[in-house]
Amino acid sequence: MEAEVGLLETEPLQGRDEDAVASADFSSMLSEEEKEELKAELVQLEDEITTLRQVLSAKERHLVEIKQKLGMNLMNELKQNFSKSWHDMQTTTAYKKTHETLSHAGQKATAAFSNVGTAISKKFGDMRKSFDTEG
């Protein structure tokens, strides 16, 4: 049995559906009174957005002035942010475990290089003794 498509679909709009809705002319469905109300609301919203942008711009200028008075600048903020981030990273368990592992590996590598160096020195010493006794 085929499912009947109801009047109200429950699927979200897809790209082509959104295009169809965007290009549809809904103004013919509205009464003149509704159109006038929407136009008034549109003007009011545009005015509010303009006002909010002006207020935000003024607050951003004030923020910059305060930071300048306090001697804060972009470089100081970047340094502070970097220092905090570096400290936060160093306190993570993953960092601590990695640091311990690499430290232990470094100690082993140092010991291994030391042993190789000692062996090479001993070999050169043996070769020198052998050369001195032959010569």
UniProtKB/TrEMBL annotation:
Residues 1-29 are annotated as: Disordered. The keyword Oxidoreductase does not apply. GO terms for biological process: positive regulation of apoptotic signaling pathway. It comes from the Eukaryota. Keywords: Coiled coil. The keyword Coiled coil applies. GO terms for cellular component: cytoplasm. It holds the Pfam family TPD52. Belongs to the TPD52 family. This is TPD52 like 1.
